[in-house]
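Dear colleagues,

As part of the handover before I leave the project, I'm documenting each prediction I ran so the next person doesn't have to rerun anything. This entry is a single chain, and its sequence is reproduced below.
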Amino acid sequence: MTEAAFFLSRQFTLSRRQAHRYIEAAQTLERPVPVAEPTRAVTFKLPPSLVDAVRARAAAETTTISDLVSLALRAFLGEAGGNG
């Protein structure tokens, strides 16, 4: 665990104490946590009314705008599942 905390702290610029806390918390999980694929920032223009609607829907579903748009695009493209 000490070696893992060392690598975690270096990779993510954490203190070793915080890295140990993350490792201890991970050990209490009952199932694996899915790892999302890497993301890229995308910039595009939308009408203000659509932006407002997306923000409102994301807030209503307690999710992020990025996750909501990703889910909508995956559904549109016919891809089942997937995170963010």
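The first helix runs from residue 2 to 12. The chain has two domains: 1-33, 36-84.

All the best with the project,
I.
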